[in-house]
Specification:
The protein is an all-alpha fold. It has helices at residues 2-9, 17-32, 41-49. The chain is built from 3 helices and no strands. The longest helix has 16 residues, at 17-32. The radius of gyration is 18 Å and the shape is elongated. The two termini are 22 Å apart.
Length: 66
């Protein structure tokens, strides 16, 4: 609904697919992303704290965002 409201306020967004896509994903993850990491956060933090397991070089972060 927030994306539809934004388009109604600014129909120009329909001509800019990239901006519309970013707006949609921001609204989607703003709502559905709440608390998504709560169950796995402790396990991820433990993995990073293992001696000799420090990330180095290029670290690939796969998740919501740009």
């Amino acid at each position: 609904m927030p994306t539809l409201a934004a388009v109604l306020l600014n129909p120009f967004l329909l001509l800019h697919w990239n901006a519309l896509s970013k707006l949609f994903m921001a609204n989607l993850w703003g709502e559905f992303g709440k608390g998504v990491d709560e169950n796995g956060r402790e396990a991820k933090q433990r993995l990073l704290m293992i001696p000799g397991n420090e990330p180095e070089g290029v670290v690939l972060d796969i998740g919501a965002g740009e």
